[in-house]
Amino acid sequence: MTYHLRKGGREQIIFLIPLIATVSLAVISDFRNWRIPNNLIAFGLIQGFTMSALMRGIPQGLVCSVKGCVLPVAILYVLFLIKALGAGDIKLLAVAGSFVGPDISRVISYSFLAGGVISIIYLLKEFILSITNRNKLSDKTSARKLVKARVHFSAAIFAGVVCYAGTISAY
Fold it and tell me: Distance from CA of residue 111 to its chain's centroid?
């Protein structure tokens, strides 16, 4: 049984505009406060369930949204327990899942790839700054700073959602 939308790429992109807007607001909030508000998550879930029901039909759309919400929580809960991923990031992926359904696994994959690229860029920036400041990278304070560095994973989720939107328009 396929959960993909039956319409063409243009309708699918229009279907994802509220998701892209919600994730954009979450990124802004995350960069400002280091948190994603629960009311934004709730609004995104309502939008996702509504859009999915409109595009896929009531029973299939709601089932699809539930599956898309549960998958990120089930898959990524371990990362939350070891403090590798924040609860807001997992909830934001659940919002994305309410729109895309079981295809959330693709959004998660794209998001982790984007997160890896963002982390590499951050490490390169820190390495270049350490060289230009003539500090040793092996200095204990610099090493502690790099270990404790946090990344706004919501930006990677935004990139994952945009990549997903780009790939479905190709079908």
Answer: 6
